[in-house]
Amino acid sequence: MGFIILLVVLGIGVLFWITSYNSLVKYRNWVEESWAQIDVQLKRRFDLIPNLVETVKGYAKHEQETLARVVELRNQITAPKKSRQEQIEANNELSGALRQLFALREAYPDLKASNNFNMLQEELAGTENKIAYARQLYNKTVMEYNTKTESIPTNLVASIHNFTRRDMLEIPVEERENVKVTF
Hints:
By secondary structure, the protein is an all-alpha fold. The chain has helices at 2-59, 64-77, 84-107, 109-113, 115-150, 154-160, 173-176. 81% of the residues lie in helices and 0% in strands.
């Protein structure tokens, strides 16, 4: 009788371990999938930028510095062996440069009237919204994964099988400041 109880307890323990491990794998894969969604949107933005730059070049010939900065930042993003954090930082810099590029629109009325520029700007704005949503999804998924790896009793399985805490994406300090609107 004691042997049967021991087998049942052992069986429950093994079942718990397998279930916990599989759950952690599922959450880890969700984190990776949500990062891949960010990557897809960043690639989309990356592909739109040359078209936007070429459109602006025709109108704003003496704004070469801004255009060169956008192209330079775009090229930095694809540098090999960048960590996720380095990629996000480079993309944040690119977002700032794109804001400067869109500010040129006010200085060049012909650019403002260009259908190509307007379509590309709308496409890029939509992509920026998708990037923001993908970042939110990533942070939510990372939070759920971290909670799972840090909660008792799955933290035992997580520590033994090297399921480590992941960092959430943060907004750069410059983007947290209030926007100044003047009339």
